[in-house]
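Work Package 3 (structural annotation) set out to generate three-dimensional models for the target panel prioritized at the project kickoff. During this period the team completed the workflow that converts sequence records into discrete structure tokens, so that structures can be stored uniformly alongside our sequence database. As a representative example, we reproduce one entry of 704 residues exactly as it appears in the project archive.
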Amino acid sequence: MKSTDANAPIAEKQPTKLEKHGDVRIDNYFWMRLSDEQKVAPVKDAQTQKVIQYLESENTYYETVTAYTKDFQEELFQEMKGRIKEDDSSVPYKENGYYYITRYETGKQYPIYSRKKGSLDAKEEILFNVNEMAEGYEYFQLGGLSISEDNKYAIFATDTVSRRQYFLRIKNLESGVILKDIIDNTTGGAVWANDNKTIFYTKKNPITLRSEKIYKHILGTSESEDVEVYHEKDDTFNTYVTKSKSNQFIIIGSYSSVSSESRFLDANNPSGKFTVIQPRVRDLEYSVSHYKDHFYLLTNKDKAINFKLMKTPINATSKENWVDVIPHRKETLLEDFSIFNDYLVLEERTNGLNKIRIKRWDNTEDYYLPFDEETYSVGVYDTPDFDTDIIRYSYNSFTTPSSVIDFNMKNKTKDVKKEQEVLGGKFKKENYISKRVWATARDGKKVPISLVYHKNTVLNENTPLLQYGYGSYGAIIPDGFSTTRLSLLDRGFVFALAHIRGGEYLGREWYEDGKMLQKMNTFTDFIDCSTYLIENKYTSAKHLYAMGGSAGGLLMGAVVNMNPELYNGVIAAVPFVDVVSTMLDDSIPLTTGEYDEWGNSNEKVYYDYMKSYSPYDQVSSKAYPNMLVTTGFHDSQVQYWEPAKWVAKLRELKTDKNLLFLQTNMEAGHGGASGRFEALKETAREYTFFLALENKITQKPVKP
């Protein structure tokens, strides 16, 4: 793919002076920022027209330069689509007398939600056909499904803009009629009280989109009559409402990055008052489940950095009453737990690998499920039934397609309910190799890298390798199977997943060591992993590629500023790159809730540190790799103007003739396209960028 940089759009420079802590920054592209009102106004003002024109000119440039790859993109899309079982369906699960199923039909973009009463042989009752609901919309998302205790009504949520501001509606499942009740600007989640007419839901702040208020709605009444039952006034916290697995309690949770607080209400008394379990304390986190006469708490109390399980009586819930059930272990991260009548199921992580531990309440058994592969991902499904010996879990790895397995905790037998089908007739698990290697970071820490490649791929300095990373919020990118990734592996690529600091792959300390004033470790870990892969002849700088999205896009922006010479090509998807300006603006969604992740740049120490790595602020006059930057015009998490400004500044200052593209989905937000096939087209576009740089496509470029 040849550079035509001379034909690229040049953004107008309008210097805006930004000053904080005596430091002056000049932002030449501040004008690209539009308000939500400007974006959706039926008549566009001059600035809106100018911004849209610039974004569309970048899209046109991208389409023009990559026009010769369109046939290959379509070929790749069809190849990926051909591996998918289009008429697929989920493993049914039973709840409150019904089996619930999600299925797809051949050629259709969206799922169909259905249920069967009492038996899988019963007549199918279609709850929602999302294909019909999505007609006429460029973007459509259905979420928040919640069925009333009498099985008569379903709450559902819809988003047609992709800003994660959902409308809540209610459907009578007996008549099929959608009620007049409609509630706007919610998170999409809602729960029923046990009277089958009272609903609790979460409202967002219309400007910052922070989840800040819990309301109570009575079936058949107007939203204007809804009662506010909780207001989270601390703008560094968000709030949510859920229901205990026992169905006995409505629980309101509030949380920040470092603290949490929960309150509960008898679900049979929705007009009652909520009771606080434990008032918030800085650096104390806990989440709540109910079992018999106790609340069970996953918590970091007593400096349990990797968390432990405690319990407290329902009538004495403050922290001095909490007692250990599963004590803290330095080497093991306790990620989650599930409660059954006879068993406690724990999800743990040791040395980066998932573990499922099963423990009888009477202490007669305590064992782990065996998993043999060197790297894999496993997770327990939420099982509604308390009185069962069966847990359902999913298992997959880089080389093993996903399976859904029912495990009998009593007799230790397992029943594979479903194995992911890979169509096309070419996939064989034994044709691929996966392993973990450990790179030494510059401070001596060992950073794990999970690798997968085709057995016929020769590893040397000419091998193309895609290194992926995220490294924020404690999130763990799983070593999971991907049918789309096969299109890279079968063409000689190695895929490397760097488990860098900022995630929790090696425990909570791994996260703490990659946030706030330790954030630079995230970036240097990724770079040190790249250096390791080059030095150990897995690839070379001419064939090394990097990719990350959102906070992983920040990672991409940081590493190309710090060591651009290590990479031939980089994709930064919906990248968070204007860190300083965003963290100074508390009107932007997510900002205040992020202070405990990045720091509060209103304080000079954090301002200076953020500026030292902020990709937009650190762009300088030098050569950069080939780059594709993607964004969504309606993105509420990373506003489109961050990547747009970043690309404009890169164009202004970079000294190379390498490719630089900005591709904006004018109809979508942070998650990209909503339909399953449209999402595949986005993946095909991204893979084509890398494959074209490797000269692995047959078409030849045509000069625009």
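The CA atoms of residues 131 and 501 lie 41 Å apart.
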